[in-house]
């Protein structure tokens, strides 16, 4: 991200400098001299094996865990761990927990969503309006009066996201947003995430889905043992085989396809790696012979229908 | 208990004001228990049945089955009051057994029936409330009448955690069953103990995570939440008022009689 290297401090949404954190009773640190800068409005995917420290970093960003060493800044302002300082931080950053059951404590979705906004000091009328507005945006209106335990896993997840969005944060952190969701709810959650970025909100997610991270993120942060192994664009990270191996990650399917097509000479060596399945399709349809093949493939189902 | 909860939020009466429903149920309960009148109790029982089944659209079979549970206890208890063992037969009935009588007096029978009726009407009041008003809505009303917030917060968290824990327990038990943890009585007992301790550890963990996530949403030691408002309609207030006054009059009349 060379374009940000200049002294434009206000552009960084998050800066973490050399933070260390060890859980009580553990020998190995969960975060080990961890440094990272995140530009405002960017989409950042955190990747790395179980226990690499993603969730711990997220909790630090929200002031839930206090690093033993190092400092974190949000919008260029260092954290102050006073009541007021923490309130400021938590107003700006919202975190959606991995397991919605860890987050939803209230008896109904409506109550749960109102909790955060009331804590921000909003008046009752305003809070009600915010809750109803956010629920409508996420398509949750029909579920507002449901008891939390009567929701499905996907609905719980959406409720947990709504809990945070209703507070209007500038930075939204989602810890494995698609974990244990079916395809429909995964798509739904991803659509919500995409809309956040469109609004200029900085979005950080932890994910194990390389295909998704590759297509969605501006920046991928690869973590291992509480350290940043690499921070780079999806292309930079995913074309680095050694790095992926080291972090026990697999390259995205699009890239693997691209590599093998390149090897067999169907794609010329000079071609840039595609950023998404769509781009790969474009590269392929750029070639006459392949285009014929694809259009034939796309025609086949219709032909079968007619039979 | 879970099915009651489900029925409550599916009830057609859910959309009526929770405050109204609670006022109705509690006042009727008090009048029934304080008045001890057979007629009043019967009336309340019938009206509650009507409200639950016709207005709330709860299946009569379900409701009937639920009423049978307390009835069984009640019958056992009442038998003990009505039936005496004595050498002299009393006026209501007497069954001779080798020189002794299983016997009861008219007054005793009346008293037993009254007790049964009062108890069943009280139960029907509570069932009406439980089958039309989810705990969420009740908590909203309790908040409105300024019950200490500590109590309400505890009720809220306990209510939520009952379901989270039941869910966890069910998962642990399934996992045990898959590994033959319930092969015979002794393994069954051991498995149950293990489930208990696992459940305890997980609850502590979960409570920690829950606290973290509440802090992340600026929790400051007091749980403030808004519940949906469903104001009491004038017509409802009038109907409830008229009904309670009627009950009180009937009670007075049956005492004077
Ligand atoms: N509450 C806790 N108490 C003690 N140790 C913990 C706690 N939470 C996490 N750890 C430890 O800290 C390290 C980092 O954990 P963390 O949860 O941050 O990893 P993660 O990258 O989020 O992993 P995952 O992909 O499994 O969610 C792990 O070694 C873990 O065992
Ligand atoms: Mg994690």
Would you kindly provide a brief summary of this structure?
By secondary structure, chain A is α/β, with parallel strands linked by helices. Chain A is 42% helix and 19% strand.
In total, how many domains does the architecture of chain A comprise?
Answer: 2
| DSSP, total strands of chain A | 10
Helical residues, percent of chain B? over 70%
Which structural class matches the secondary elements of chain A?
alpha/beta
Main beta sheet of chain B: strand number and arrangement?
Answer: 3 strands, antiparallel
Strand order of the largest sheet of chain B: 1-3-2
- Please indicate the percent range of residues of chain A in DSSP E strands (runs of 2 or more): 15-25%
Amount of helix of chain A = 40-55%
Task: Explain what this protein looks like in three dimensions.
The complex is a heterodimer of chains A (307) and B (257). With 307 residues, chain A is an alpha/beta fold. Helices cover 42% and strands 19% of the residues of chain A. Chain A has helices at residues 54-61, 83-92, 109-119, 124-137, 153-165, 183-198, 210-216, 234-238, 241-246, 253-263, 277-285, 288-306; strands spanning 12-21, 31-39, 43-47, 69-74, 77-78, 93-96, 171-175, 202-206, 219-224, 227-232. In chain A, the strands form two sheets. A six-stranded mixed beta sheet of chain A has the order 6-7-8-3-9-10, with helices on both faces. In chain A, helix 3 (109-119) runs parallel beside helix 5 (153-165). Chain A is globular, with a radius of gyration of 22 Å. By secondary structure, chain B is mostly helical. Helix content of chain B is 73%, strand content 5%. Chain B is built from nine helices and three strands. A three-stranded antiparallel beta sheet of chain B has the order 1-3-2. In chain B, helix 3 runs parallel beside helix 5 (106-130) and helix 4 (60-82) runs antiparallel to helix 5. Chain A binds chain B through residues 59, 62, 64, 83, 87, 90-91, 94-95, 97, 99, 101-108, 110-112, 114-116, 118-120, 124, 127-128, 131, 144-150, 163-164, 167, and chain B through 5-6, 9, 14, 134-136, 139, 156-157, 159-160, 163-164, 167, 206, 209-210, 212-220, 223-228. Magnesium ion (MG) binds at residues 54-55, 98, 175, 206 of chain A.
């Amino acid at each position: 991200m060379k374009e940000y290297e200049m002294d434009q401090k206000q552009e960084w949404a998050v800066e973490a400098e050399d933070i260390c954190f060890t859980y009580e009773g553990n020998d190995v640190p969960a975060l080990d001299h961890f440094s990272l800068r995140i530009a405002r409005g960017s989409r950042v995917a955190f990747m790395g094996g179980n226990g690499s420290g993603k969730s711990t970093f997220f909790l630090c960003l929200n002031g839930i865990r206090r690093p033993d060493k190092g400092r974190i800044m949000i919008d260029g302002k260092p954290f102050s761990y006073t009541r007021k300082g923490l309130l400021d931080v938590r107003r700006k950053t919202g975190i959606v927990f991995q397991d919605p059951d860890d987050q939803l404590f209230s008896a109904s979705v409506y109550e749960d969503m109102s909790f955060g906004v009331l804590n921000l000091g909003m008046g009752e009328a305003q809070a009600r309006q915010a809750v109803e507005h956010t629920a409508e945006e996420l398509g949750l209106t029909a579920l507002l009066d449901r008891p939390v335990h009567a929701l499905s896993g996907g609905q719980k997840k959406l409720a947990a996201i709504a809990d945070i969005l209703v507070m209007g944060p500038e930075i939204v952190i989602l810890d494995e947003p698609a974990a244990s969701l079916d395809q429909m709810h995964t798509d739904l959650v991803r659509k919500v995430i995409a809309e956040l970025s469109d609004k200029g909100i900085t979005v950080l997610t932890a994910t194990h889905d390389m295909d998704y991270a590759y297509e969605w993120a501006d920046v991928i942060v690869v973590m291992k043992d509480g350290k940043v192994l690499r921070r780079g664009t999806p292309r930079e990270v995913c074309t680095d085989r050694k790095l992926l191996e080291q972090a026990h990650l697999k390259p995205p399917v699009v890239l693997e396809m691209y590599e093998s097509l390149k090897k067999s000479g169907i794609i010329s060596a000079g071609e840039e790696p595609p950023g998404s399945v769509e781009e790969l399709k474009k590269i392929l349809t750029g070639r006459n012979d392949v285009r014929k093949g694809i259009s034939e493939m796309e025609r086949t189902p219709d032909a079968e229908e007619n039979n | 208990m879970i099915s009651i909860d489900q029925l409550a939020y599916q009830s057609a009466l859910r959309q009526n004001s929770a405050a109204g429903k609670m006022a109705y149920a509690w006042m009727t309960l008090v009048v029934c228990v304080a008045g001890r009148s057979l007629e009043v109790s019967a009336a309340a029982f019938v009206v509650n049945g009507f409200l639950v089944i016709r207005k709330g659209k709860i299946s009569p079979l379900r409701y009937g089955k639920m009423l049978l549970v307390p009835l069984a206890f009640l019958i056992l208890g009442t038998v003990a009051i009505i039936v005496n063992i004595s050498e002299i037969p009393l006026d209501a009935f007497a069954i001779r057994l080798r020189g002794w009588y299983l016997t009861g007096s008219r007054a005793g029978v009346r008293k037993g029936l009254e007790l049964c009726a009062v108890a069943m009407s009280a139960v029907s009041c509570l069932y009406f409330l439980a089958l039309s008003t989810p705990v969420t809505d009740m908590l909203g009303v309790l908040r409105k009448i300024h019950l200490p917030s500590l109590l309400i917060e505890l009720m809220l968290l306990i209510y939520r955690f009952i379901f989270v824990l039941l869910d966890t327990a069910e998962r642990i038990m399934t996992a045990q069953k898959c590994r033959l943890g319930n092969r015979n009585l002794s393994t069954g007992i051991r498995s149950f103990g293990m489930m208990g301790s696992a459940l305890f550890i997980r609850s502590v963990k979960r409570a920690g995570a829950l606290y973290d996530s509440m802090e992340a949403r600026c929790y400051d030691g007091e749980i403030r939440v808004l519940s949906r408002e469903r104001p009491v309609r004038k017509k409802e207030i009038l109907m409830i008022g008229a009904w309670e006054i009627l009950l009180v009059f009937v009670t007075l009349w049956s005492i004077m009689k």
